[in-house]
Design a protein that fits this description.
By secondary structure, the protein is α/β, with parallel strands linked by helices. Helix content is about 40%, strand content about 10%. The longest helix has 19 residues, at about 15-35.
Length: about 325
C-alpha cells in the first residue's frame, strides 16, 4: 500500500458517501488478508467505579459527588471471570476507575487467582500506575494492558484531563511495552476543539507507536460533567478512523466498541464490516453493571449475561463473521497468533 499523506488522511477522516464506503471496503479487505475473518471476544468486567481522576467527559470523575459508587470484592471478580470462561470467551478485560483501594498486591493476587482458576487471557485497564505496579502485574500473569491516549493533541489532552500530563500518559505506555505487555491505546472522536488535523495526529501516533490494539469510538459525554452539553461524537467519523487505523497498521486488533453501538444501534455490525475484528461485551455482574456510569445509554445491564452473550454472537453473525476460539492474541507477540 502506498503511504498516505497527511492531506489524504485529513480528507478520508471526513469522507462521506461513496468515498467512505470505498475506504471501509478497503479496510475490510486488508483485515481479511492480514488477520483473517475470525472475530475474537473479550468479556469486560467493570469492577470499581471509584476514581481519583477528574476527566471532563467521564461520569466516574471524582467531582461527580452524586454517583453511587461500588467496588467488587476480589472473590466476586474471580467468580465473574469463571462465568466468562464458561461462556467460551478467551479473554477477560478488567476495567475500573483509578481506584487506590486496588493496591499493587491486591491486583497481583487477583490476576494470579484468575490465571489459576480459568484459562483466560487477562487484559487490565486500570489507568496510570507506577512502572513497579505494571511489572508486578505482568509477573503475576497479566497479558495485556489498555491505556488509551484519548487524543494525540497535548493541549487538548491536558485541558480535558485536569492535573494530568500527556507525557506521563505516553511514558506509562512505554513502560508497558518494555515489560512485554500487549499494549492497547485509542482515541475519542468528537472532543470539543478536535479538528480533522487533530484526528490525523491521532492516526500518526497510532501508526508510529506499535500498539497491539486500538479502541476508537465517539464521545458520549455524561450529563453530570463539564462536557455534558457537547454533542455525541460522529459515528461516521469514528468508522472512518477505524478503517484508516486498519490501513495504517494492518495487523492491529481493532474492536467494534460499545460506544459505537450506544451512539447508533447497529454500528458494531458496520464496524466489523469496515475493518474491526474484536467484540467486547459488558459481562459485569448485573447487580453492579448499572452503577458503572461512565456515560449514559449503555444497554448491557438491561440484559442477563446469557442474553448479552447471545446479542454479541448475533452481531458477529449479522456481519457474516465466524467467532474465533482462544485468547486472540496479537500476531506480533510470541504468545499467540
Amino acid at each position: 500500500m502506498t503511504p498516505m499523506t497527511d492531506r489524504e488522511l485529513r480528507e478520508l477522516v471526513v469522507a462521506e458517501g461513496p468515498a467512505a464506503a470505498e475506504l471501509r471496503a478497503e479496510a475490510d479487505r486488508v483485515r481479511r488478508e492480514t488477520v483473517g475473518d475470525d472475530v475474537y471476544l473479550r468479556g469486560i468486567v467493570e469492577f470499581s467505579s471509584h476514581c481519583r481522576c477528574d476527566c471532563e467527559y467521564c461520569g466516574l470523575r471524582i467531582s461527580h459527588r452524586d454517583l453511587a459508587r461500588f467496588r467488587m470484592t476480589p472473590a466476586q471478580v474471580v467468580t465473574a471471570c469463571r462465568d466468562i470462561a464458561r461462556f467460551g470467551f478467551g479473554t477477560v478485560v478488567l476495567q475500573s476507575g483509578e481506584d487506590p483501594w486496588w493496591t499493587t498486591r491486591r491486583v497481583a493476587d487477583l490476576v494470579t487467582a484468575i490465571k489459576e482458576e480459568t484459562p483466560l487471557a487477562v487484559t487490565l485497564s486500570l489507568g496510570e500506575r507506577d512502572t513497579s505496579d505494571y511489572r508486578r502485574w505482568r509477573e503475576a500473569g497479566a497479558d495485556r494492558y489498555l491505556l488509551k491516549h484519548e487524543t494525540a493533541n497535548r493541549e487538548l489532552y491536558e485541558r480535558l484531563h485536569p492535573g494530568a500530563s500527556y507525557d506521563r500518559r505516553l511514558a506509562c505506555q512505554d513502560a508497558l511495552f518494555d515489560l512485554g505487555y500487549q499494549v492497547g491505546s485509542g482515541c475519542i472522536v468528537g472532543l470539543p476543539g478536535q479538528t480533522p488535523d487533530v484526528l490525523v495526529e491521532d492516526l500518526r501516533l497510532i501508526e508510529s507507536r506499535g500498539y497491539h490494539m486500538c479502541g476508537l469510538g465517539p464521545l458520549i459525554p455524561h450529563p453530570a460533567t463539564p462536557l455534558g452539553a457537547v454533542p455525541v461524537g460522529s459515528v461516521e467519523t469514528s468508522l472512518n478512523m477505524m478503517a484508516l487505523v486498519r490501513l495504517l497498521v494492518p495487523d492491529i486488533m481493532l474492536p467494534a466498541t460499545t460506544a459505537l453501538e450506544t451512539a447508533e444501534p447497529g454500528a458494531r455490525v458496520r464496524a466489523l464490516q469496515g475493518g474491526a475484528n474484536i467484540l467486547m461485551p459488558n459481562l459485569t455482574p448485573r447487580r453492579f453493571a448499572s452503577f458503572y456510569d461512565i456515560y449514559p445509554g449503555k444497554k448491557a445491564p438491561q440484559l442477563t449475561l446469557a442474553q448479552e452473550v447471545e446479542r454479541t454472537l448475533a452481531i458477529a453473525r449479522a456481519a457474516g463473521r465466524p467467532v474465533g476460539s482462544g485468547p486472540g492474541h496479537s500476531r506480533r507477540t510470541s504468545s499467540g497468533t
